[in-house]
Amino acid sequence: MIRRSIPRKPLRIYRTTRTSNPTFWIADTTDIGKNLKFVHRLSIQNCSITYPKNSFSKMEILSKIFIAIVALEHLYILYMEMFAWETLGKKTFKGSLPDELFKPTKGLAGNQGLYNGFLSAGLIWSLFICDVVWSKNVAIFFLGCVIVAGIYGSLSASRKIFFVQALPAIIALVFVLLR
User: Fold this and answer.
1) CA nearest 143: which of 178, 176, 109, 179?
2) CA distance 162 to 21
3) Which of 151, 144, 143, 131 is nearest to 67 (CA)?
4) 10: alpha, beta or left? (left if phi > 0; alpha if psi -120 to 50)
5) Nearest residue to 126 (alpha-carbon basis) of 116, 147, 146, 140
């Protein structure tokens, strides 16, 4: 038998018809989703399903906000590096690269933008995962990837990258770990 680290919230299932002795069933949330015959049987018997209320702590809301900020930042980087490298990229990386190198490095920047898009997609995915442990683990992984990329970029290209890319991800990671 496999034990879960988090107790599952039960569903309360009860008959909707008025009887002198109402009957209650407690079912596991995963059993309801997997067993469609069970749900169909309940609908035939005039039953309704009440799902448990999701309550989010302040730390969880803050961590999701910071994750969303980091994800949006990487969507912006994706746009800049894949589609606006010769216009917006020149303004952003002014002084780091000579102007004549932006045209030949457009393919390389597009590749970097694609990787930033993958990081953003993973962070956005972590916001939509319902299981708390799984969502936290996915967020930790992708925030860790962003932090490593930001630290490497600050060591190899510009120290500004640490403050723009890695520091927001570190702050988000702290909130994720504290929730």
Assistant:
1) 176
2) 65
3) 143
4) beta
5) 140
Torsion of CA 134, 137, 142, 145, to 10 degrees: -160
Residues present in the chain in total? 179
Lowest mean pLDDT among 95-104, 108-117, 127-136, 140-149: 95-104
Q: What's the CA gap between 139 and 51, in Å, rounded?
A: 26
User: What is the helix (H) or strand (E) element at residue 177, kind and residue range?
Assistant: helix 167-178
Predicted structure pTM score: 0.66
pLDDT exceeds cutoff 60 at 31:
no
Domain residue extents for the chain: 10-50, 58-178
What is the longest distance spanned by two Cα atoms in the chain?
84
Q: Measuring CA to CA, how many Å separate 27 from each of 8, 13, 138?
A: 10, 7, 28
Nearest by Cα to 135 from 74, 67, 50: 67
What is the arithmetic mean of pLDDT over 89-112? 84
Crossing angle between the packed helical segments 58-82 and 132-156, to the nearest 10 degrees: 50
Q: Which of 171, 177, 179 is nearest to 68 (CA)?
A: 171
